[in-house]
What we know:
2 domains; mainly alpha
Amino acid sequence: MNGRKAYELLIPLSYLVMVGVFVYLNFFADGIGDLSNIVVSIVMFVIVAIIFLTCERTAFMPVSSMVTDLKRVTMRIRGDSEGTEQFLWNKYRAMGENLFADDILRSRYRDFLRESDRVAAMGKVYIRCDLEDYINEELTDEACHRGLLGQVPGALTGLGILGTFVGLSLGLQHFATESTVAITESIAPLMGGIKVAFYTSIYGMVFSLVFNYVFRHKLEDAERAVGHFLDAYRSHVLPDAATDGMNLLLDLERQQTEALYGVSNSMRTLLESKEMSELSEDSVRHAHRMLGELSGVTEKLSAALSEASDQMTRIDAVTQGKP
């Protein structure tokens, strides 16, 4: 079904049901209804059909294709990662494969690869190209025309309200009040107009609710597919070294600041308690011990920074295709 879900069938199903209701009410329930009222309902159904077909062709189909391709690539990454502890970046780059079949995703991923090669050629490990800058939720919103399609439920409701006023106008058009006989004769066309007014309101509300339900579910599926793909890619193909490396350096800087602050407070307390000339042997030993702790903190910090540098160098070697 090209990535399509069962809930998407609600749109054509609801349309067919409403058409069936229209045919029954206007041709079988009370005989053939008024021609003008039938024309109003038919015009509304034609407009709704155009809206649904346009949304399907320009939004739902592209998003369904993207979701299908994202799920396929996610499953492939997880399958290729089984039985190996190495990142798949070198393997995929050596194959020269784009991974994606969908045109939109293929183009975005190609841009990401080009930028990654450019950054790798610069030889700066602190600069990283993040795949999420190219494939993200904004991409699915753009493909789905989220801003435009978000107005469709309101437009369908408004179309039903418009049909209500048109139906009432048609019913009141032949309503006469000159005499009792005239009023009696004009009741039938008035009731016909009221019927089409209520019917079009029901059609509009049903179409609006169904479309909004399908649209929201389609967006959730797309966002979930993007999230799962990015998680799999960062776990098995290329880690997000920029964010991880920066967080690590910030954490090391915080630890260094806290350690130096603690040593500074201890030394200040010691110096304020006695004059330098009156320092006892115990105080001197305590001062030496504090200095030893400071030296230990410095050594740990140096080792941690060295480890962080090695980790970023290894990740950079992965991006540059080194063993």
